[in-house]
Amino acid sequence: MSSDNLSITERLTNVSARANALCDTVQSQIGNINNTVSAAETKFDNYMSGARAELSHILMSKNQKMEPNDSGTAIKGFTTIGLERFEVIKEATIYAAAANDTDHTGNGVAQDFRTNVYNGYVNSGFHILRIKWKRNDASHPARIDNNYWLGFQQGALSTGCYLKLISGSIEGTMQPVKEYSNGWQLLGYHQRADNPSKSFYGPHTKLGLSSSTLEEGEALICLFGSVSGFVDFETAGWGVYPEFARLTDVSSAISQLRTELTP
To answer: 214 or 254, which is more confident?
Structure first.
C-alpha cells in the first residue's frame, strides 16, 4: 500500500515503529560493545595480575635486613644527609618463627611487631631498629637511604618499609599504604618505567627525617629497601627480598677468602 494513502496518524505510527526498531538495534549493538569491552578489560586485568606475579622483585638497595654499624651511628649500606645527630639501636630481630625472635633491649619491640603488624612465617631474619635523630639547620631535606648516586636503582621499582613514628615527623615520596595498630604503618612508593629512552632513577628523598629544621625525632623501622618492578603493597604487603651479588661483593669475598687461605 502506498504511503500516500495513509493518514497523518498512520504515518506517524509507522515512523514511531521504525524509530523504536532502530533504538532496539542501537541498544543491542551497545550491549554487544559493552560485553566486548568488559571481556577485554577482564582479559587485560588477568594479564596484568599474572605479569606482576611473574616479576623477579630483586632487591636494588643494600642491607634490607638493616644491620647497624658497631658504633650505633649508622645503618650499613645506608647513608644520611642533613642530620646533626643520628643514633641507631638494634631493638629486635625477627626470625622465621615468633618463638625464635630476639628482644635485644627488653622493650618488647619484637612482640609489638608480631602483635600489630605480622605474626606469620618470615622467610629470612631481619632487624627492627630504633632510630633517633636531630635535623640540622639547612633548608635542604634531611634523609636516610640516600643511594641515588650509587646507581643501583634503575628502571621501575617499589620502595617500602615498616615504620612506627614515636616523635617528630617524616616526609618524602614514601606514603602510608597500610595502617596497623599501635602506630605501625607500611610506607610505600611506586616508580613507573614510563619512557624507554629515559634514564630512570630512585627519588632523592624516599624517607625524609623531620619536616622542620632542628626538629628531633624517633621511630622504629624495619625492612627499608627498594626492589625491581611492582609490588602490590595492599595485597602482598612487604617482606624480605633476594639480592643479586654485585661485583664489589664478589671481589670483597675473594679477598677475604685469599686472606683466610694464606698461611
So the answer is: 214
